[in-house]
Hints:
Rossmann fold; alpha/beta; 30% helix
Amino acid sequence: MDYVGRFAPSPTGPLHYGSLVAAVASFLDARHAGGKWLLRIEDLDPPRESIDAPQEIIRQLLAFGLHWDLEVLCQSSRLKSYDDALESIQAFTFPCTCSRKAVPGIYPGTCRLRKHLAPVGPYAVRLQVPRHSVSINDRCLGLQTWDLEKEVGDFIIKRKDGLHAYQLAVVVDDIHYSVSHIVRGNDLLDSTPRQLALYEQLEVSPPEYLHIPVLVDESGNKLSKQAHAKPVDTSDALTTIRSALSDLGQNTHEYSLSIKELLEKAASSWNPATIPNVHDIYHRN
Protein backbone atom coordinates (compact mmCIF):
# COMPACT_ATOMS: atom_id res chain seq x y z
CA MET A 1 0.00 0.00 0.00
CA ASP A 2 1.36 3.42 -0.99
CA TYR A 3 1.56 5.89 1.88
CA VAL A 4 -0.58 9.03 1.51
CA GLY A 5 -0.87 11.41 4.45
CA ARG A 6 -2.45 14.83 4.80
CA PHE A 7 -2.65 17.98 6.88
CA ALA A 8 -6.13 19.50 6.88
CA PRO A 9 -6.50 22.86 8.68
CA SER A 10 -9.71 24.88 8.82
CA PRO A 11 -9.20 28.44 7.51
CA THR A 12 -10.50 30.19 10.61
CA GLY A 13 -7.20 32.00 11.12
CA PRO A 14 -3.41 31.54 10.93
CA LEU A 15 -1.75 28.40 12.27
CA HIS A 16 -0.84 28.47 15.96
CA TYR A 17 1.94 26.42 17.53
CA GLY A 18 -0.32 23.44 18.27
CA SER A 19 -1.35 23.31 14.61
CA LEU A 20 2.29 23.41 13.57
CA VAL A 21 3.19 20.46 15.81
CA ALA A 22 0.42 18.42 14.19
CA ALA A 23 1.62 19.45 10.73
CA VAL A 24 5.23 18.51 11.56
CA ALA A 25 4.18 15.09 12.87
CA SER A 26 2.06 14.38 9.80
CA PHE A 27 4.77 15.62 7.43
CA LEU A 28 7.58 13.61 9.04
CA ASP A 29 5.51 10.43 9.20
CA ALA A 30 4.85 10.70 5.46
CA ARG A 31 8.42 11.55 4.50
CA HIS A 32 9.87 8.80 6.72
CA ALA A 33 7.70 6.31 4.83
CA GLY A 34 8.68 7.77 1.44
CA GLY A 35 5.04 8.73 0.90
CA LYS A 36 3.01 11.68 -0.28
CA TRP A 37 1.86 14.48 2.00
CA LEU A 38 -1.21 16.47 0.96
CA LEU A 39 -2.53 19.84 2.10
CA ARG A 40 -6.31 20.17 2.32
CA ILE A 41 -8.09 23.37 3.31
CA GLU A 42 -11.32 22.43 5.10
CA ASP A 43 -13.37 25.46 4.05
CA LEU A 44 -16.91 24.17 4.58
CA ASP A 45 -18.12 26.62 7.24
CA PRO A 46 -18.04 30.13 5.72
CA PRO A 47 -19.43 31.95 8.80
CA ARG A 48 -16.38 30.84 10.83
CA GLU A 49 -13.74 31.37 8.15
CA SER A 50 -11.28 34.17 7.48
CA ILE A 51 -10.85 35.17 3.85
CA ASP A 52 -7.08 35.65 4.31
CA ALA A 53 -6.46 32.47 6.30
CA PRO A 54 -5.76 30.00 3.44
CA GLN A 55 -2.93 32.09 2.00
CA GLU A 56 -1.51 32.80 5.47
CA ILE A 57 -1.55 29.08 6.34
CA ILE A 58 0.25 28.31 3.07
CA ARG A 59 2.83 31.04 3.79
CA GLN A 60 3.47 29.68 7.29
CA LEU A 61 3.90 26.08 6.12
CA LEU A 62 6.35 27.14 3.41
CA ALA A 63 8.31 29.25 5.91
CA PHE A 64 8.80 26.11 7.99
CA GLY A 65 9.88 24.05 4.97
CA LEU A 66 6.75 21.88 5.00
CA HIS A 67 6.21 21.37 1.28
CA TRP A 68 3.24 19.30 0.17
CA ASP A 69 2.66 17.12 -2.88
CA LEU A 70 0.05 17.81 -5.58
CA GLU A 71 -2.12 20.93 -5.60
CA VAL A 72 -3.71 22.43 -2.51
CA LEU A 73 -7.10 20.76 -2.03
CA CYS A 74 -10.14 22.84 -1.04
CA GLN A 75 -13.26 21.15 0.27
CA SER A 76 -15.48 23.95 -1.05
CA SER A 77 -14.80 22.64 -4.57
CA ARG A 78 -16.04 19.13 -3.73
CA LEU A 79 -19.65 19.68 -2.67
CA LYS A 80 -21.08 17.42 -5.39
CA SER A 81 -18.88 14.57 -4.18
CA TYR A 82 -20.37 14.90 -0.71
CA ASP A 83 -23.91 14.88 -2.09
CA ASP A 84 -23.09 11.82 -4.20
CA ALA A 85 -21.79 10.05 -1.09
CA LEU A 86 -24.95 10.99 0.81
CA GLU A 87 -27.07 9.50 -1.94
CA SER A 88 -25.04 6.28 -1.95
CA ILE A 89 -25.70 5.69 1.76
CA GLN A 90 -29.25 6.99 1.80
CA ALA A 91 -30.54 3.68 3.17
CA PHE A 92 -28.56 4.34 6.37
CA THR A 93 -29.64 7.97 6.88
CA PHE A 94 -32.74 9.80 8.07
CA PRO A 95 -33.94 13.41 8.37
CA CYS A 96 -33.78 14.95 11.83
CA THR A 97 -35.64 18.07 12.96
CA CYS A 98 -34.38 17.96 16.57
CA SER A 99 -32.75 21.11 17.92
CA ARG A 100 -29.36 21.02 19.63
CA LYS A 101 -31.11 21.84 22.89
CA ALA A 102 -33.25 18.73 22.49
CA VAL A 103 -30.17 16.51 22.11
CA PRO A 104 -27.80 17.35 25.00
CA GLY A 105 -25.89 14.05 24.85
CA ILE A 106 -26.04 10.81 22.87
CA TYR A 107 -28.79 11.07 20.27
CA PRO A 108 -31.79 9.07 21.56
CA GLY A 109 -33.11 8.11 18.12
CA THR A 110 -36.11 10.44 18.20
CA CYS A 111 -36.40 11.05 14.45
CA ARG A 112 -35.02 7.64 13.49
CA LEU A 113 -38.19 6.11 14.88
CA ARG A 114 -40.29 8.20 12.46
CA LYS A 115 -37.98 8.22 9.44
CA HIS A 116 -40.84 7.04 7.21
CA LEU A 117 -42.63 10.36 7.80
CA ALA A 118 -41.85 13.47 5.76
CA PRO A 119 -40.02 16.05 7.92
CA VAL A 120 -41.80 19.29 8.77
CA GLY A 121 -39.55 22.33 8.47
CA PRO A 122 -35.74 22.48 8.18
CA TYR A 123 -33.93 19.25 8.93
CA ALA A 124 -30.46 17.81 9.25
CA VAL A 125 -29.42 14.40 7.93
CA ARG A 126 -28.15 11.84 10.43
CA LEU A 127 -26.32 8.58 9.86
CA GLN A 128 -27.86 5.62 11.64
CA VAL A 129 -24.85 3.94 13.21
CA PRO A 130 -24.42 0.15 13.12
CA ARG A 131 -25.27 -1.67 16.35
CA HIS A 132 -21.81 -2.94 17.13
CA SER A 133 -18.40 -1.77 18.31
CA VAL A 134 -15.61 -0.39 16.16
CA SER A 135 -11.94 -0.20 17.02
CA ILE A 136 -8.53 0.94 15.83
CA ASN A 137 -5.03 0.06 16.91
CA ASP A 138 -3.74 3.59 17.25
CA ARG A 139 0.00 3.85 16.58
CA CYS A 140 0.49 5.93 19.74
CA LEU A 141 -2.46 5.16 22.01
CA GLY A 142 -2.87 1.46 21.24
CA LEU A 143 -6.24 -0.29 21.03
CA GLN A 144 -9.23 2.06 21.08
CA THR A 145 -12.77 0.65 21.02
CA TRP A 146 -16.18 2.35 20.88
CA ASP A 147 -19.72 1.02 21.09
CA LEU A 148 -21.29 3.04 18.29
CA GLU A 149 -24.86 2.92 19.55
CA LYS A 150 -24.14 3.52 23.25
CA GLU A 151 -21.14 5.87 23.09
CA VAL A 152 -21.64 7.74 19.81
CA GLY A 153 -25.23 7.57 18.60
CA ASP A 154 -26.66 8.59 15.23
CA PHE A 155 -24.77 11.70 14.14
CA ILE A 156 -25.28 14.57 11.72
CA ILE A 157 -23.68 14.34 8.29
CA LYS A 158 -25.52 17.29 6.72
CA ARG A 159 -26.61 20.28 8.75
CA LYS A 160 -29.96 22.05 8.83
CA ASP A 161 -28.38 25.05 7.11
CA GLY A 162 -27.43 22.84 4.15
CA LEU A 163 -23.72 22.67 4.94
CA HIS A 164 -22.04 19.28 4.80
CA ALA A 165 -20.80 18.10 8.18
CA TYR A 166 -17.11 17.71 8.94
CA GLN A 167 -17.31 13.94 9.45
CA LEU A 168 -18.77 13.23 6.01
CA ALA A 169 -16.49 15.57 4.07
CA VAL A 170 -13.33 14.29 5.76
CA VAL A 171 -14.08 10.65 4.99
CA VAL A 172 -15.20 11.28 1.40
CA ASP A 173 -12.04 13.28 0.68
CA ASP A 174 -9.71 10.84 2.39
CA ILE A 175 -11.21 8.04 0.29
CA HIS A 176 -11.00 10.05 -2.94
CA TYR A 177 -7.33 10.90 -2.42
CA SER A 178 -6.44 7.40 -1.14
CA VAL A 179 -5.26 8.69 2.25
CA SER A 180 -3.71 5.69 4.00
CA HIS A 181 -2.41 7.25 7.23
CA ILE A 182 -3.92 9.97 9.42
CA VAL A 183 -1.74 11.78 11.96
CA ARG A 184 -3.59 14.35 14.08
CA GLY A 185 -4.15 15.65 17.60
CA ASN A 186 -5.90 13.44 20.10
CA ASP A 187 -8.59 16.10 20.47
CA LEU A 188 -9.97 14.50 17.29
CA LEU A 189 -9.97 10.98 18.72
CA ASP A 190 -13.72 11.28 19.41
CA SER A 191 -14.28 11.83 15.68
CA THR A 192 -12.71 8.49 14.84
CA PRO A 193 -15.68 6.19 15.61
CA ARG A 194 -17.97 8.40 13.54
CA GLN A 195 -15.55 8.27 10.65
CA LEU A 196 -15.19 4.50 11.03
CA ALA A 197 -18.98 4.18 10.79
CA LEU A 198 -18.92 6.15 7.54
CA TYR A 199 -16.10 4.03 6.13
CA GLU A 200 -18.18 0.95 6.91
CA GLN A 201 -21.31 2.27 5.21
CA LEU A 202 -19.25 3.43 2.20
CA GLU A 203 -17.67 -0.06 2.10
CA VAL A 204 -14.07 1.19 2.22
CA SER A 205 -11.30 0.08 4.59
CA PRO A 206 -10.27 2.88 6.97
CA PRO A 207 -6.74 4.33 7.15
CA GLU A 208 -4.24 3.82 9.95
CA TYR A 209 -4.39 6.37 12.77
CA LEU A 210 -1.80 8.10 14.93
CA HIS A 211 -3.18 10.53 17.51
CA ILE A 212 -0.60 12.78 19.14
CA PRO A 213 -0.83 14.87 22.35
CA VAL A 214 -2.43 18.30 22.09
CA LEU A 215 -0.63 21.45 23.24
CA VAL A 216 -2.20 23.33 26.15
CA ASP A 217 -1.64 26.73 27.78
CA GLU A 218 -0.97 27.53 31.44
CA SER A 219 -4.68 27.11 32.23
CA GLY A 220 -4.77 23.65 30.69
CA ASN A 221 -6.79 24.83 27.70
CA LYS A 222 -5.95 23.45 24.28
CA LEU A 223 -4.15 25.92 22.06
CA SER A 224 -6.80 26.95 19.58
CA LYS A 225 -7.95 29.90 17.54
CA GLN A 226 -11.13 30.05 19.63
CA ALA A 227 -8.96 30.41 22.76
CA HIS A 228 -6.98 33.19 21.03
CA ALA A 229 -3.75 31.23 20.60
CA LYS A 230 -1.16 33.45 18.94
CA PRO A 231 -0.19 32.79 15.31
CA VAL A 232 3.02 30.78 15.23
CA ASP A 233 6.04 33.02 14.63
CA THR A 234 7.93 32.15 11.44
CA SER A 235 10.91 34.45 12.07
CA ASP A 236 13.08 31.74 13.68
CA ALA A 237 11.89 28.62 11.89
CA LEU A 238 14.79 26.41 13.00
CA THR A 239 14.19 27.02 16.70
CA THR A 240 10.44 26.56 16.36
CA ILE A 241 10.76 23.29 14.43
CA ARG A 242 13.24 22.01 17.04
CA SER A 243 10.72 22.88 19.75
CA ALA A 244 8.06 20.90 17.88
CA LEU A 245 10.42 17.93 17.54
CA SER A 246 11.15 18.05 21.26
CA ASP A 247 7.44 18.10 22.11
CA LEU A 248 7.02 15.07 19.84
CA GLY A 249 9.78 13.18 21.65
CA GLN A 250 12.10 13.27 18.64
CA ASN A 251 15.78 14.00 18.05
CA THR A 252 16.12 17.78 17.61
CA HIS A 253 19.31 17.56 15.48
CA GLU A 254 20.88 20.65 17.03
CA TYR A 255 23.71 20.83 14.50
CA SER A 256 21.49 21.20 11.43
CA LEU A 257 22.12 24.57 9.79
CA SER A 258 19.03 24.86 7.59
CA ILE A 259 15.35 23.96 7.71
CA LYS A 260 15.82 21.60 4.75
CA GLU A 261 18.64 19.72 6.48
CA LEU A 262 16.78 19.62 9.80
CA LEU A 263 13.60 18.21 8.27
CA GLU A 264 15.51 15.63 6.22
CA LYS A 265 17.32 14.39 9.33
CA ALA A 266 14.13 14.50 11.39
CA ALA A 267 12.28 12.47 8.75
CA SER A 268 15.07 9.90 8.70
CA SER A 269 15.07 9.51 12.50
CA TRP A 270 11.29 9.82 12.95
CA ASN A 271 10.01 7.33 15.52
CA PRO A 272 6.33 7.40 16.58
CA ALA A 273 7.16 5.05 19.48
CA THR A 274 8.91 7.93 21.30
CA ILE A 275 5.95 10.33 21.08
CA PRO A 276 4.84 10.98 24.68
CA ASN A 277 1.81 8.81 25.48
CA VAL A 278 0.02 11.60 27.33
CA HIS A 279 -3.11 13.57 26.59
CA ASP A 280 -1.52 17.02 26.51
CA ILE A 281 1.76 18.94 26.66
CA TYR A 282 2.17 22.40 28.18
CA HIS A 283 3.36 25.21 25.91
CA ARG A 284 3.86 28.81 26.97
CA ASN A 285 1.64 30.67 24.52
